[in-house]
Amino acid sequence: MGNLTVWPAPAKINLFLRINGRRADGYHELSTLFAILDRGDTMTLEPRNDGIVRVFPDMGFPTESNIIFKAIKLLAEITGKNIGADVHVDKRIPMGGGLGGGSSNAATVMVALNHLMNLGLSEDELARAGRRLGADVPVFVRGRSAYAEGVGEKLTPVAIPEKWYLVVTPENTHVSTREIFMHPDLPRNTPKMPLEDLMKNPRANDCEGLVKKIYPEVATALSWLLKYAPSGMTGTGASCFGEFPDEDAAVRACNSLPDNISGFVARACNVSPLHELLGKLKAAK
User: Fold this and answer.
1) Dist CA 268 CA 107 (whole Å)
2) Which of 12, 41, 70, 212 does the annotation list as catalytic?
């Protein structure tokens, strides 16, 4: 179709994550605060109207199992149209880090193709569809910092301080979310409480103790980060984040990273880079 465009797929961190119980269907009741960052992957999209989906570069597994492929096919299913795309991903978000890379990729491709191909789906419709792909997809579809409850599907936009963070990930450490949530030692009984009470214990993460026990590399990375700033683990790990008063302080810490830990500096944003771009494109029409 000759409509080549570049779109951001931002990372996220969970500023806190509390587990309030386990439901009969095996899913967990959660309370968490999502902060979308101004850094992440970049995706170059070229829509196709022949139903073909190609994802580059080769991720080392079948394209059909890639969440990007699934997102495009889901769009085709719910619209009844022969939607396809060529998608090039500049992957910067570490996999298995709890930073939402796959979910963000899926959300970006859905939001972008909805705009580029004039599919006419509302944000609510896209978010409901995204929920079928993964619990974190709707927060990226909506593109706002948010308080999440239930299994992550109940989202309430929350304006948060747009602070600077150093996000670090131990090299070659990929934490399995399924392993953590299935583990018998995972705490599952944190009482539900109002958001203002949850905010009094920032960076609390009910998964952290178990993850550090199973993955000592995460414990090492968090210990290093705590020397520089108030810090916590995001999601089920392996990535951790430190909160800094300004960009310069975060960059200085980043420049001191040990060889076996990678990191990047980012700012939390109440409106995601994806929706900043979408707003500009809509205004230019």
Assistant:
1) 18
2) 12
Q: Please confirm, yes or no, whether 136 is among the known catalytic residues.
A: yes
pTM: 0.94
Tell me, which fold does domain 164-269 have in CATH? Alpha-Beta Plaits (3.30.70)
Residue-wise pLDDT tens digits, 97-153:
899 999 999 999 999 999 999 999 999 999 999 999 998 999 999 999 999 998 788
Domain ranges of the chain: 5-159+271-284, 164-269
> What architecture does CATH give domain 5-159+271-284?
2-Layer Sandwich (3.30)
Question: Is 12 a residue of the active site?
Answer: yes
Residue type, 166: L
Active-site pick, 41, 70, 136, 212? 136
